[in-house]
Specification:
The complex is a heterodimer of chains A (391) and B (156). In chain A, strands 3, 5, 6, 9, 10, 17 and 18 form a 7-stranded mixed beta sheet that branches. With 391 residues, chain A is of the alpha/beta class. Chain A is built from 14 helices and 18 strands. Chain A folds into 2 domains: 221 residues, Alpha-Beta Complex (Quinone Oxidoreductase, Chain A, domain 1); 162 residues, NAD(P)-binding Rossmann-like Domain (Rossmann fold, 3-Layer(aba) Sandwich), CATH 3.40.50. In chain A, helix 6 crosses helix 7 and helix 6 packs across helix 13. Chain B has 156 residues and is of the alpha+beta class. Chain B has a domain of 95 residues. In chain B, strand 2 and strand 3 form a beta hairpin. Chain B is globular, with a radius of gyration of 18 Å. The chains are: A alpha/beta (391), B alpha+beta (156). Chains A and B meet through strand 2 and helix 3 of A and helix 1, helix 4 and helix 5 of B. Bound molecules: nicotinamide-adenine-dinucleotide and zinc ion (2 copies). The site of one zinc ion has 8 residues of chain A, from helix 2.
Amino acid sequence: MKALCWEGVNKLSVEEVPDPVLRNDQDVIVRLVAGTTCGSDLHLIGGYIPFMRSGDVIGHEFLGEVVETGAAVRRHKVGDRVVVSSFVGCGRCWYCAHDLWSLCDNTNTNPGIGQALFGADTGGIFGYSHAMGGLRGSHAEYVRVPFADYGAFPVPEGVDDTSALFVSDSVPTGWMGADLAGVRPGDVVAVWGCGAVGQMAARAAILLGAERVISIDRIPERLEMTERHIGSEVIDYTATDVGAELRERTGGRGPDVCIEAVGMEAHSDSPVHVYDQVKQQLRLQTDRPTAVRQAIHACRKGGTVFVLGVFAGAVDKFPLGAVINKGLTVKGAQQHGQRYIPMLLDRLAAGELSTSHLATHTVPLDEAPRAYGMFKDKKDGCVRAVIRPGG
Amino acid sequence: MAHGKSLWATAAVLAAGAAVVARRVKARPADPATGDRWLTVTINLGPEEIRPGELPSPLREYGDRIETRIRPAPGDRGTELAVRPRGAVPDSAHSVRARLSGDDPRQDLRRALREAKALLEAGEVLRPDAPPTTHDTPGGKLVGLLGRRAGGEGVL
Ligand SMILES: NC(=O)c1ccc[n+]([C@@H]2O[C@H](COP(=O)([O-])OP(=O)(O)OC[C@H]3O[C@@H](n4cnc5c(N)ncnc54)[C@H](O)[C@@H]3O)[C@@H](O)[C@H]2O)c1
Ligand SMILES: [Zn+2]
Ligand SMILES: [Zn+2]
């Protein structure tokens, strides 16, 4: 079959790879209907995530049709249309049992690497390096889905493929940020990043009762989209002093909850950015935490900062002083998709949530490298490029 | 530029790999009076559900060559299963060389323990897709090797 492979830093190509086969009894094989580009892939393509091998198939946000089921699969049958959580959970370890699915103990096929990098292994995610599972990605004609009874969810009648696709990764990620940050009615919430993840975090905050939600980015189309489709206020960070603006919009208090949905390749105009970039290029720091710093600085005393953006290693100039002296709670997580996906599909079906506007482009698999180029450079208004291997 | 960058990426991988090895080497030495140290995992099952005589195959195959200890984990965290080789294991068995070549007996025991946990909790040991990649490069081979070695001695 054909698949999109990582061939080295900033090198992607569509190649012929062997079809996936059932390797465990709880696997299913899914024929891809649609997959999409995620900001996390950019970190991987840029070489900021270690433990990639050239030839690795990437992609983790997807939807498709079950074409084969392992002997122990109970909840799926051939022909089911399913959306699949990007993180794989076994469903029965302590973490899965406590709805912390991305921390699953049993789904990383290379345990030990995470141990060295982070002090413990994370769960496995599709197509995201040998440190984070060593599982093949979904930008292919077929993908093997382990522990499918737990990670694959039937899409309700009446919810179209494109809308359901994002429930695989970006929607539950955004929801988790607002939920685990403890957004409550009356809160003012600020969200850094107007990609799919940031937009979904903003939407979740609104649905969880936030009084005001303010989203921050610099890309005009994204700001406009966030205002129109999400119903969030926006700030262009290149046009104003974000900290001052947030302070004035919140009666001088600062946002109760700050959600960071930018990640390790954050952009900035400040001189510190050059410093961060140089250090990152030299691998003296692995990540550029611009938006995290700003979120911590802007957050009201006693507030919560939730980091949804992906970071791989160590950062510089982390404002620990603000954390302690303002009594902040700082949290982060990779997404616990299985915890939220059924609820999110219901909300989609009920019309409370809409996601189809995120799909700004649709391409066949052969054009996936070009689509990633466009997504990376945020060209042509690209927010998510949908890749349809079946054309 | 792209080439320079990929060199850095390789350096990052190497550094991470070195960290894997370094961390393993610093592991606490065995207590000579009591033999090799215990290797432990926590299993999300009640102590009554784990019977020493009925551990899953990767551990069962060790038979009398290992000691087994089972005790409740604190709070709701399940059950701690610990194993260690019976009798004295020479220090050289845990040398850096033995670890790099994958010959440290602790590595296999750790793997067996981890697999037993997966079998008890999830009913299977998740296998990676095969083949791991369609075309190998030296960097890729190194990542593969590190992955195989790291699996032998994590904390899980
Ligand atoms: N935690 C998880 O499970 C999870 C899941 C999916 C994605 N992510 C991460 O979330 C982040 C966002 O993902 P995405 O798919 O929306 O990516 P994206 O690239 O589409 O969006 C990122 C946005 O951040 C904006 N940005 C850059 N610098 C900024 C700054 N200093 N201040 C404010 N905005 C800034 C960019 O203009 C862009 O619009 C990435 O780091 C991704 O890896 C995490
Ligand atoms: Zn993602
Ligand atoms: Zn689990």
